Amino acid sequence: MAASADIIDRCQHIFDDLHFRAARDWKAAVPGRFVVGYMPFYVPRELIHAAGGLPLGVLGGGDQLEVIHGDAYYQSYICRIPRSTLELAVTGRLDFVDAMLFPSTCDVIRNLSGMWKILFPKVRARYFDVPQNFSDHIGGTFYIHELTELRALLAELAAHAVTDDAIRASIALYNENRRLVRAVYALRARMPWQAPAAEVYLLMRAGMVLAVEEHNRMLDAYLEAAAAEKRPMRDNSRVVVTGAFCEQPPLNLIKSIELAGCYIVDDDFLLVNRWEKSDVPAEGDPIAALAGAYLHNSVNMAAKYEPDEERKGLHLVEAVRRTDAEGVIFACPSFCDPALLDRPMLQTVLARHNIPYIAFKYAENSGQMQPIREQAGTFADSIKLWSEP
Amino acid sequence: MVVTAGIDIGTGAVKTVLFAVDGAATQWLARRTDRVRQRDPFQLATGAYAQVLAEAGLRPDDVGYVATTGEGELLDFHTGHFYSMTTHARGAIYLDPQARAALDVGALHGRATRIDARGKVLSYRMTSQCASGSGQFLENIARYLGIAQDEIGTLSRQADDPERVSGICAVLAETDVINMVSRGILAPNILKGIHLSMADRLAKLLKTVGSIDGTVLMTGGLALDEGLVAAMQEALRKEKVPQPIRNHPDSIYAGAIGAALWGAFRHGRLARRLGQSAAA
After folding, report:
1. What are phi and psi of B132, to 5 degrees?
2. Does A193 contact B at CB distance below 8 Å?
3. pTM for this prediction
4. Are B80 and A261 inside 8 Å of each other by CB?
5. Could you tell me the residue range of the domain that residue B109 belongs to?
C-alpha cells in the first residue's frame, strides 16, 4: 500500500509543473490523442473523454509564474487568472493543447475566449455557455443544443463520431470519479486531521491533469492510505471555505488557514469534480442525462442563477450543517465579480442562521500570509472560546 | 482537575508554563524561559516542555492539553493553538484582574488589546511592519553601544537629557543613534530617547483601541524593561490617557499563561462534548 505522503508528493510535482508534462506525456503516448483545456468552473468532461481526448484543467499560473505578457492584455482592475492563463499560453506552456473551453463564469472568462481565437487561431477555442434557466423545455433544450455542438467539435478533433455508447461509458467512469471525490471529502469532514485540506487540494488538482482512470486509482489509494495512517487530532475550529471556485488560492493560503487553527471541512475549490451532486444516469440518452444533471442535480454557486430567492444561500447553510462546521470563511479572489457580488447575500443568510463568518480577498500569487493567519487565527479562537458550547 | 501546558514561541524567547486547573482554581506548577539566540525554537520548546514536566514531577500523559501560541502552531505535540492576542488578553487578566487592556511589546512588534473582565478581546491594534517599535531594535542598539540587555532599563532611568530617535523607521533610527554616538551623547540619554520614541508609538496605539475601563498591563518580553515602563507612563500622560499602566514580574509569561488557561477551558468543553456524544 502506498503511503499518503508518496501520493501527495506526486500530486505536488504535478501541481508545480507549469509545463503540464503529465498531460504532454499522455498525448505523446498514442498517436491521434488530443487535449482539451478548460477553465473553471465546469465543463462536461465526460464528452471530451468519450471522444478520446484528455480534459485538462487550466487554472491559472499560481504563485510561481511571473506574469509579463499577460498584464498587457488586461486592465489593473481585472482578476489575475486571465493574465496568468494568457501568460501560460503566450510562453508556449499550452502549445500541446488542441482546444480550449471557456465556461460562462463571468465576462472576463467569456472575453478570454475571444482573445484566444485571435491570439491562437490554430486552437479550437469555444465559449461554453450553460443555462441559467432550469426548466427542461427552456434551459434543457438550450443546453442539449450546446452539448450537441460541443460533441460535434470533439468529433472533428477525434476524426470519428462520438457515440452514445462511448459517452455512457465515460459517464460511468466519471461517476466513479465523483464517488471517490465525495468519499475523500467525506473522510475530511469526518476526520480532517487524517486528510488535511492542502493534501485534499493537491489530490484534486492532480485530477485536473491526469486521465480520469489514473486519478480514480490515485483517489482509491489515498483513501486507503489516509484511513490507515494515524495522525494527531488538533483542537481546531471546523470551517467551510467558499468563494474560491475560479481563480485558485495559493497553496500556502490553504495551509495558513489550517495552521492558524481551522480545519477546512468543505470548500468550493475545483468544483468541476463534484459539480453533479450524485451519479449522472449512465443509461438512456447520454446527452439528455448530462443536461438533466446540470439542471436538477448540480451544486449552487455564484455563477449559477438561483431562481428561488428564498433558497439563495441555503446551500452554504446546508454545507455547514452537513459537515458539522462552526463557521464560514469567505475567501474570494480580488476583482472576482461573481464571488464578491454574491458574498453580501450569502453573509445575510449566514447571519440569519447565526453562523459566524469572516471574509478576505486573495490573488493566486498572494505571498504575504500573515494577515490571513491573523484573521483565520482570531476567527478560530472566537469560535473555540466564545461560541455557544 | 486538568494539567495544561502553555508554550509561547516568540521571536526572541520561548516561554513554557505548566498549570493545574480545577474549575476557577489554578495552580502554577512550573515555568521556564529560553532565549532563542539563533537556535531552533521548536527544539527549544520540546526541551523546555520536558524540563517543566520534570520540575513538576509529571509525565506527558498527565497533561490534558498542550496549548501553543506565538509561532507555536508547527510544534508537533500541541493539542490546540491560540492566537497571541487571545492568549495575552487571558494572561493579563490572570496577572492583574483589574487589567482592561494588554500592551504586548515583543521582539518584533507591539500590540494593544482592549479586553473585558473575562479576557475577551474587544478590539486591538498592532504596530506596522517596521521594527523600530520593537524589542529586536532595542536589542540591536544595546549591542552597538556595548550594553548588556538587563542594563538597558536602569541606564535609561539615569538619563537627564534624552535624545529622541526616529519613531518611524528602524534604519533612520539606527542612523540617529550612530550620529548621537559620534556627537558624544551618553548611553543613558540615547536609551531613554529610544524608549520615549517607542512609548510615543505605543501610547498612540493604545488610544486607538477605544475607551479602557481599568488598568493597562504591559506584557511580553519588554514589559520588564523599567526604562520603557517609565517612558510609557510619561507618554500616556502626554496623550492624556488617565488609566494607570503597570507591569508584573511574570509579564513575560502572559502569552504562555493565557494559552495554558484557555487550554484548560477547551479541555473542559471538549470533555463535556464527548460526554454528551457518549450519552447520546
Report:
1. -70, -15
2. no
3. 0.91
4. yes
5. 98-247
